[in-house]
Amino acid sequence: MFAISTFETLGLRAELLHAVHDLGFTEPTPVQLAAIPAALAGRDVLASASTGSGKSAAFGLPLLEALIDLPRGKTRALILAPTRELAAQIADHLRALAKYTKISVAAVFGGVGFNPQVGVFRRGTDIIVATPGRLLDHLNQKTASLDGISMLVLDEADRMLDMGFLPDVRRVLKHVPAARQTFFFSATIPQAIGTLANEMLKSPARVDLAPSTTPALGITQTVYSIDQQRKADLLVELLKDNNIFSAIAFTRTKSRANRLAAILLKHKIPAERIHGDRSQAQRTRALDEFKRGKFRVLVATDIAARGIDIVELGHVVNYDVPMVPEDYVHRVGRTARAKATGDAITFVAPDEEKYFAQIERALGRRLDRSKNPALPAPSVVAPVAAVAQAQRRPQRRRTG
């Protein structure tokens, strides 16, 4: 018989267990089971785990456990995240876990007012979740001090590499005491990230639960071959199925996101956009209203792929095929979170076949193409068109 692991067996305080139960968590996820005991023992942690695996609680609960008895009024923990959405999401999650404690949590990121954030540092907020760029702005203007940091978390480190943040991360590290406990979380560990991890960590406990190209269990993957100019028609047709009640559609560019959202609205499908050209207030409002069900489709670029946490998101649509397999995994990881089920739908145009072939090689299998519900199959189109053309062709009169 195998013992059933619970949060109680991890040795957490009653206040934290109460909050965990309020959130409806019953059993720790694999990354939580592996990372939390090592973190509670004071070790550095290097963890690779797929999106939606419960990483925020895996580092958040040990942070809260360590800070719960310490005096307030000094910032002791710093979490670095690559995007505004992810920073806000982590902060919200930690506040929920700290519900029965006096620990304070704040998010610091760009796109919003600078001066209100000064008070966050001045008050000595216990845990600060920040994006590297805005944090450096505060450090450069001497409105922030990290001298009291004893616990540091780097979340979604590979995304920081993709977004060019590694130099900023190294600059931030110069302001953080060397004597600290460090948690390093990343969905993948490419060489550059491995080098940074070696610089940051001391004899870490290694948690490796995320093969770089394996989507979460519970995801049904559907693929359609479709011409670029007919993708919107196909999405509109699929959305006639009322089972697709909440979907994120990923596009390659901001302009394509704008166009797709406009097309959906034209067909009376409630939709909104979230991408880098939108202000933080617009992005926050779009995400909040999508979560509340005001919009049926949220059209997003990859900037949001790792910063969105939505309970019961049923569908992810790869409107454009991502150029690297890892981005496919992160996109589809928005659904089937926390052991739930979900659907990932991908539209593959002829000029995207080479990118999707890379994804299939990384997955280790070919994903069958589904019958297009909006258009006849190509093998049917040609004969029908030929017959129609022949019917329209004037008949030559025979002469004797």
Question: Could you describe the 3D structure shown?
Answer:
The protein has two domains: 8-208, 3-Layer(aba) Sandwich (Rossmann fold); 219-381, P-loop containing nucleotide triphosphate hydrolases (Rossmann fold). Helix content is 39%, strand content 15%. The chain is built from 15 helices and 13 strands. Helix 6 (132-140) crosses helix 8. The longest helix has 15 residues, at 378-392. The radius of gyration is 24 Å and the shape is globular. The N and C termini lie far apart (94 Å). The relative contact order is 0.12. The model is unreliable at 377-400 (pLDDT under 50).
Keywords:
7-stranded parallel sheet; disordered C terminus; Rossmann fold; globular; 2 domains; 400 residues; alpha/beta
Please write out the topology.
Layout: H1 14-22, H2 30-40, E1 45-48, H3 55-67, E2 77-80, H4 84-97, E3 105-108, H5 115-122, E4 127-130, H6 132-140, E5 151-154, H7 157-162, H8 166-173, E6 181-186, H9 191-200, E7 205-208, E8 219-225, H10 231-238, E9 247-250, H11 254-266, E10 271-274, H12 280-291, E11 297-300, E12 315-318, H13 325-332, E13 342-348, H14 353-363, H15 378-392
Parallel strand pairs: 1-6, 1-7, 2-4, 2-5, 3-4, 5-6, 8-13, 9-11, 9-12, 10-11, 12-13
